[in-house]
Q: What sequence folds into this?
């Protein structure tokens, strides 16, 4: 039924608008590439986990080393989560509907995703990833010079301020939209 509606819709479009609308499918290889990149992160996760286990076997594991490896694992998971948000949310927003309604595994955030919500979610995820990197740096602060510590902190603060700005802008846009449609 949904395909009939889409076909009828596309049939009504003039040739140029139809081609412009169809151009969204050029993004498909990009999302497939991100799926491959996620596979690389899965491999990276297992390599780091194997490294952790070998460190435990060799009894060469200090608390700091354990914390750094575990933070590295968390970092890989957070980046993988970011990839899922971009792949699923981006596909749903910019390419085509996934038709996951009533599927038991449908992500709850997907039902209200749009370009603005996706930007805020991505900014928040980047802050989380940046936080992990900053924490890793400060746990091992003696290995870094003061200039590096300051720059990493400033970059993290810039991410936080950027995310706040994006979220605030999206809030203004959403409230303006809701006022117009009341």
A:
């Amino acid at each position: 039924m949904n395909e009939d509606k889409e076909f009828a819709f596309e049939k009504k479009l003039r040739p140029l608008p139809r081609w412009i609308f169809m151009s969204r499918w050029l993004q498909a290889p990009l999302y497939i590439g991100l799926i491959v990149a996620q596979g690389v992160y899965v491999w990276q996760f297992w390599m780091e986990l194997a490294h952790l286990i070998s460190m435990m076997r060799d009894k060469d594991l200090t608390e700091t080393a354990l914390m750094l490896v575990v933070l590295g694992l968390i970092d890989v998971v957070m980046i993988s989560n970011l990839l899922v948000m971009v792949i699923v949310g981006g596909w749903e927003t910019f390419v085509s509907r996934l038709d996951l309604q009533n599927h038991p595994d449908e992500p709850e955030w997907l039902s209200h995703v749009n370009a603005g919500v996706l930007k805020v979610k991505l900014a928040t995820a980047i802050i989380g990833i940046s936080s992990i990197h900053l924490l890793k740096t400060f746990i091992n602060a003696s290995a870094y010079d003061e200039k590096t510590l300051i720059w990493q902190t400033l970059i993290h603060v810039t991410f936080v301020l950027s995310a706040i700005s994006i979220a605030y802008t999206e809030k203004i846009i959403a409230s303006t939209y809701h006022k117009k449609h009341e």
About this structure: The helical segments are 2-12, 15-22, 28-57, 63-95, 115-139, 146-180. The chain is about 80% helix and 0% strand. Residues 28-180 form one domain. Residues 146-180 form the longest helix (35 residues).
